[in-house]
Amino acid sequence: MTKIPISVLELATVTEGGNFKTAIDNTVKVAQNAESLGYTRIWMAEHHNMEYIASSATSVLIGHVAEKTQTIRVGSGGIMLPNHSPLVIAEQFGTLETMYPNRIDLGLGRAPGSDQLTAMALRRNQETAHAFPNDIKQLQAYFSEENRDAKVRAFPGEGLDIPLYILGSSTDSAYLAAEMGLPYAFAAHFAPAQFRTVINIYRNNFKPSEKLAKPYVMACVNVLAADTDEEAQILLNSLISLIIGILTNTRRPLRPLEAVPEAYNIPEVKNAVNNMLACTFVGSQETIKQSLSIFIAENNIDELIVASHIYDLDAKLKSFTILSEALAV
Questions:
Q1: What's the CATH number for 6-223+280-326?
Q2: What's the CA gap between 322 and 329, in Å, rounded?
Q3: Within 10 A of 134 (CB to CB), how many other CB atoms are there?
Q4: Please, what's the b/e burial string for 107-130 (b: 16 or more CB within 10 A of its CB; e: otherwise)?
Q5: Residue partners of 47: CB distance under 8 A and separation at least 6
Q6: From CA 34, how far away is CA 301, in angstroms rounded?
Q7: Which positions ≥6 away from 279 have C-beta within 8 Å?
Q8: Are 100 and 159 contacting, i.e. CB atoms less than 8 angstroms apart?
Q9: Is residue 249 over pLDDT 90?
């Protein structure tokens, strides 16, 4: 297997017994650990009106993590552009790139990262998702040197080379990333059903751009690694509980569980959870190596982005270490 970049997706999830401060502190520790292991980047995801996720002010959190690290790239996975004016995002990420040169990524998503009522509270109308392609083009314009003659300009931001990525879980985002010639990151960690179909659409329709000569596929998957397969399966119980909370709108902090939640035994719930776990890799170093090597090779993945919802911070950091060793060439 050819060695590929490994990166991290973080939501700054609140764990049982913790709070928003500990969630943010732990995100910094995850970033520092990933940096020491040679991971390429850490991205934070924008979510709103979610009681146990601390990454709502994504640009602020990116700056905090970048300040506490030295070399790892830090960015958004993603900024939900319908929630924001492109000018505001150009200014925010222009500021971040100015403060932390050559380390900032801007991943962009079309979804609100929340419910529709919250999306309205973010001061944007419901039609903004349809303007997503034009908003990206406007964002690119603000970053370009050619914008210097425009009446509205982004300072700082103008003339800065900030990499853009399209995030998605559907065919629409794949077509858009292909049309714009941008890297494409697919959210297989929660929406794996269309993964292979969508990345084929992206590759088959890709048009080279000034920024990218050929398709670049980034697959976000769940990885829960431990010393043994049995220990890793226990870690999986927490993720199953988290997914059930999302599906049933009974969210709770991430918590340790020795056994699967009782609701998992309901056939409809179990089927829905298992469908969401289709791109989840659980086990010891050898198990992870075998399963991920097959996944990467079969799908010709260019970069792996890892989400690891693990209650205990030490176990979480260890999971990243085991993964790094498993995929080392």
A1: 3.20.20.30
A2: 13
A3: 10
A4: bbbbbbbbeeebbeebebeeebbe
A5: 11, 53, 55, 56, 113, 114
A6: 20
A7: 188, 189, 192, 195, 219, 221, 222, 295
A8: no
A9: no
Q: What is the C-alpha radius of gyration for the chain, rounded to an integer number of angstroms? A: 19
Q: Where are the domains of the chain?
A: 6-223+280-326
The string of DSSP letters for 67-132 reads HT-SSSEEEEEEEEGGGS-HHHHHHHHHHHHHHSTT-EEEEEESS-SS-HHHHHHTT--TTGGGGH
Tokens standing for 41? 């980047």
pLDDT at position 127, please? 62
Tell me: the pLDDT tens digits for 25-61?
999 999 999 999 999 999 999 999 999 999 999 999 9
Separation CA 8–CA 29 (nearest Å):
12
* Positive or negative torsion for Cα 314, 317, 321, 322: positive
Q: With contact defined as beta carbons under 8 Å apart, do 182 and 135 qualify?
A: no
Report the C-alpha gap between 320 and 34 in whole angstroms: 7
Task: Report if pTM > 0.85.
Answer: yes
Instruction: Kindly state the average pLDDT of the residues 53-78.
Output: 97
For the chain, the distance separating the N- and C-terminal CA atoms, rounded to the nearest angstrom, is: 8
Q: Where are the beta strands (DSSP E) in 97-239?
A: 104-109, 164-168, 184-186, 217-225
Pick the closest to residue 279 from 215, 182, 201, 199 (CA basis). Answer: 199
Q: Compute the mean pLDDT over every residue in the chain, rounded to the nearest whole number.
A: 95
CB atoms under 10 Å from CB of 312, counted, come to 14
Token pair for 102:
């050559």
> Is residue 251 very low, low, confident or very high in pLDDT (cuts 50, 70, 90)?
confident
